[in-house]
Design goal:
The chain has helices spanning about 1-25, 30-35, 45-50, 60-80. By secondary structure, it is mainly α. The mean pLDDT is about 80.
């Protein structure tokens, strides 16, 4: 169980890190994508910081729900291994 907990924890951290790095890059496709959703470019750093802190952008539920499911999996695996 402990190994599964570590694997899922690393996966969750990697996904959050990847999402944050995308926002911090300020590349044109990323800026355009968020601009279409009404998020100004100057807010991308704040969103990246929130992701790195473990928070999620809940406006579009599929991605945050996937992150939440991984977080729940980490918790369940951790509880099962103790």
């Amino acid at each position: 169980m402990f190994v599964a907990t570590v694997i899922v924890s690393v996966l969750l951290a990697a996904l959050l890190g990847f999402a944050a790095i995308r926002k911090l890059s300020h590349r044109d496709p990323v800026v355009r994508e968020y601009a279409e959703l009404g998020v100004p470019e100057n807010r991308l750093n704040l969103l990246a910081g929130l992701l790195l802190a473990g928070a999620h952008d809940a406006k579009h539920l599929p991605v945050p729900l996937a992150y939440a499911a991984l977080a729940v999996a980490v918790l369940v695996l951790r509880l099962a291994s103790s």
